[in-house]
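hey team, just a heads up i'm posting the complex here instead of the shared drive bc the drive is being weird again. everything in one block, sequence lines first with there labels, then the predicted structure for the whole assembly after. its two chains so it's a bit long, scroll down
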Amino acid sequence: MAEVAAVVKPKPRPIIRIGLFLISHSLLVSIICCVAGVLTLLLLPVLAKNTYISENALMPGSASPMLSSADASDGHIFLNKIMSIDSISTNTGIEIPEMIGKHIIESGGEVNYHQIQPISDNFHPLQFFLGPDVGIVRENYSCTSYGINTVGIVRAPRGDGKEAIVIVTPYNSVKTTTSEALSLGVAYSVFSLLSRVSWLAKDIIWLAADSRHGEHAAVAAWLRDYYALSRGDLEKNQDMCGASSVLGHELTSVKRNGVSNGFRRAGTMAAALVIKVAERSTGFEKDGLKIYAEASNGQMPNLDLINIVNYLAVHGQGLQVRVEKIWSLLDSWWLYSLGELQELLGKVAKSLNPDWKIGIPASDYVEGCATLASSLYNQALGVPTGPHGAFRDFQVDSITLEFSPRFSSSQRVLFLLHAGRLVEGVIRSVNNLLEKFHQSFFLYLMTSPNRFVSVGIYMIAFALLIAPLPLVAAALFSDASKSKSGKDDVSLEPSHPGESIPTFTAWNWLHTAKTVLIVHLWGAIVTIIPYFLCQFPNSSPLTSLLMWTVSSLVGLFFTCAASGSLSIPRASQLQIREWTLLKAVTVAAAFIGLCLMSVINYATAQIGALLLVPMCLMAVPLRIDVSAKTMKALLHGACNILLVFAGFPPTAFLLLRGALDSFDRVRLDDFWNWTESLRAWNSATYIYICMVHLPCWVLCIRILLHRR
Amino acid sequence: MSRLKSFLLLFLALFSATASVRVEELNEEFTEALLLRPLPDRKVLAHFHFRSSAPPSQRYGRHHRIFPKSIYQLVHKFQVREMELSFTQGRWNYERWGGFDPISSSNAKPPGVELWAEFDVPHDQVDDSWKNLTHALSGLFCASINFLERSTSYSAPHWSFGSASGKLRYGTLPREAVCTENLTPWLKLLPCRDKAGLSSLMDRPSIYRGYYHSQRLHLKSDESDASETSTGIVLEQILTVVLRPETFSEKALQPNWSLSSLFGRSVSGKCSLSSSSNVYVQFEQNLVSAGDKLREVSEASENAISVGEGFQDNPLFELSLLPKRVIRESGNFQKAGSILYEFSVEDSNEFKPFDLRLNWKTPVAWSSPQAPLQASRFLLGSGNERGAIAISMKSTRSTNNVEGTGGYDENECWLRVGIFQMVPWYVKVYYHTLKLFLDGKPQSSMENIEKILVSPSEDKVSTGVMELILRLPCSVHTAALTLEFDKGFLHIDEYPPDANQGFDIPSAVIHFADFVANMSLHENSLKQEPILSKLQEEVPVISYTEVLLVPLTTPDFSMPYNVITITCTVFALYFGSLLNALRRRVSEDEKLLSGKGARKAGPLMLMISKLTAKLRGKPQEPPELSDSGRSSSKYKLIAKVVLVAGVAAAWQFYFQ
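-- predicted structure starts here --
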């Protein structure tokens, strides 16, 4: 009557029963969850919502633009002056800042010059946690090369000066292109208008950033000084390396008022707009506008900022607004067929109930997917897509507006008018804002300029993908402990009477946990190695990459030898099912790593989960597959090898590159350059790759190669 | 003409004589004046000055003819010795509009409301009087001055504001919006309101269109002082506005303006209750010297007369009316001081309104006198955790024209700078982190601090106050002061409306004790005019820094609802399980379970158990999970629901 006894045993609570049920069916559950996760990810363009302006105070477009064609033609004259300066052969990079400064003073603003020096890219592995340093910027400048940012400020006539809006126009002061001059022209026409208007409540800062050392560096240097006690605050007469005399002379001849001898500030920044003009024309009927929003570590500006730009550009100025997309995805047949499938499903659903409006046209779907993929990739990369990224590091919402005009030089004034009116409208809208941006979303993915997926929806895909991990870990663990407890009774107790470690089977996982921990520790070492490699200058990317690989391998060998965990197979029966325990702990570690990463940068975690989850779940020693000698087992083994091959970070990167671009141009040293750029931007993705993905990959290989 | 002039002068002399006699006779007095001054950046400063005085009530009685009753009651009720209330919109631009003259020192105020008052009551009653006063003023001026009542919004400065009696309280409301609703009650205190006299110029749209607008009320009383010398209550009402004349003159030339173009109105006669009603046009020292220079150039060719005497032949500008008199400030050294042209509006009437006009003849650029150090204040750092306040002061010496204030001896010369900084409690300043940088070099701060008084803030009780007197060498170019702070957390109901904007740190007050801003007009008769005597008063040079906006962490204010929901859920779960545990009987459960084992399972259940057994690859076990009778009814229910749903779908599909 064993049955009766089992029945009488008090049954566990329902929630535990569900858990046990799921664990016992972990294989099925993991397959369902993974497939559902990928499907949800593919369905995101369908689930995207239309954007709407959440903050009522913004009121975009409620006032008619004041920028007249006279202002635009002023901007055009300004542009021509810049171009004429640029054509002079003896351009030392001082003339344009001087000219800008002169014009700012004439229009009634205040000017100061900010000197920047190319900063050595220091490696701060954890800087994204700490944020920019508070303190005093005191660096030793040498007079070899420096850029001069020109900063113009309009004080709001009746404002209290607590807040400011920033316009940024990056340009190269040594070699200014027409498009850069155009962006300066736009900024100037807006700035001169704003110096006359009476509705300003926030101060306006125009930063003409000298981009000869990079756009981002110039803006970031200015921002660092803005938020710290800078040289301009501490020293009255900065020596501008010979420029001071020229500047000083030039400016006294203009007017003494308004030129400051130090760093000028204007309150807390409410928003920042970076204005750029694309080199090439779009080839479209209308002038185009491209919005870049991704800042470092996948941070996005408030959605309202994008909304007002989009609204004003489309409804106010009739521009064609785009966000970045991956073009190669646009003509992929499988995506298109998926789109047609969902369109069909949507039609069926609609025929059932006309209120069910799921399903979008297939072409829209493909376009949404391409945009979404680009949005996801850019966020995952953690590298800002423009100079606006520097602002986000200081919690300032900012975007880059890249205009692409239909080029014909006669219509430049018209272009300046349109672009200027858009910028004016956005500034007026932000000016209306009493509080800082907080109403709308901060966590979202764009699928088109006016559609977005919010965090509540895109988290589902990720949650479904990682949900099987703890289940599988628990299932494997219970399997391992069960099988061991079966064997313990028979063999273990008599064979090792003298072993000091108590043979608590439940504690066996600690041993494997040690292994996993050591591999993750090795991951940390791999993270730091490039810092030492950077000490050797003049090494080509390929050699650096090779050195990195070799030193990592050596490091792996030494760590393992030192800990004695990986290389010494203990010939006890304890090791027989060790791989299940190892897999359990690996899967658990991957789960923890992915969860942590999703907090820091969701997109990285999402893409990482796509690679890591199948790899971790499938991993089974190859010997088992080989010894089984069935078709299914061999297929399983092949799948494993393929996943592990594709899961190795360099190959994953190169494959992705090749798939999106073309395989001809893919070179191995691209990977080194890529990781170097990640390091330079202090991206958390780099740390994720080295400290979560790579150790898990190594552990998977370890499982695959496990000796039976 | 000259006859008329002399007659007029005689009349004036007589009038002033009688006026002085009247003062002896204890009488109320009211005067009005307007001072206009062109500013270097194409704007015009208009400074209205109204002064009412009442003799002490012990000798004069309590009934007043001119003096506003509400103010008199205020003074008596709360025993106010001195009080100043200002409503300001916009910022005074110290760099362009000057920071070393009496007008900027005493009339440039921080944005919003600033109130300080000194009481003549025992120390323990001061706070109560302050609270009552704020409420009274709040009602009087239609402003939320009553928010200054809370102890977290005012402070008791020890030496930074005038007297060190300890009976002075100071508070500011940087976010107070200033508009006509504040101006109207202020105008009601004037005997003629804005119906006659100079105040009739105050066309609301024009004066609020300006770049700076500060309406001030200064009260001084020695009522409680019973001695013979007491002067009673003096109420000064001052409105300072900076306007931009709207003209379409060429860019290089300063804009021409007239009273009617500035204000949209003109004066038709004085307020008949006022004893004097004058308009002054002031030209700053630097402008005068620029004019002198210009004349020297032109003198070579023609024989011009000096600016003071022949204003008609002035090379710089032209005034449309003949001034009543020209007052020259006795300049220091060889330089000329500023010049005041005085006009009287008494002759004007409705048919011949007083409309002064200034026309510029040649382009001229000058700069206003600057305070010895130009201060600015800003925040360092970002993030929601901590930050720092920095006050940076830059020497204006290269552009300064006020030498002679104790001749600079580079070696043994010290510049004393007082700083008064009030910080609300949620900005937790660590005063020990005070750092001082002189010319970029960090200093051990004790060396340069002459006197410091810090009263740290107490959470939700009082503000933090720092009063500091720095002793800087005169040769210093820049001085910077930093103070680190932590950002505090507020309770959810302590957040003000629009909390996401951030929180204000009131302006710091920088005062230069060694420097006095006054005009030295040597003629004694000028003391009769209140505005002129005010200009001659020795006031320390004071400047205010910017208001700072500190973004603090703000909760999602829909959070309470989430909390309510979650709490309710937790309660429901708790009570559910509690009831479950209470009403369960173990013996019955066991009976039920054993009975169940005997019962036969439903057919569907059997099928499912077979299926699961197949899936598991284990031999089939009889179903043991639940009450089969109940489950079969459940399945029936589900089947019914599915049936109904299917019928509905088919219906829907059919009627497409």
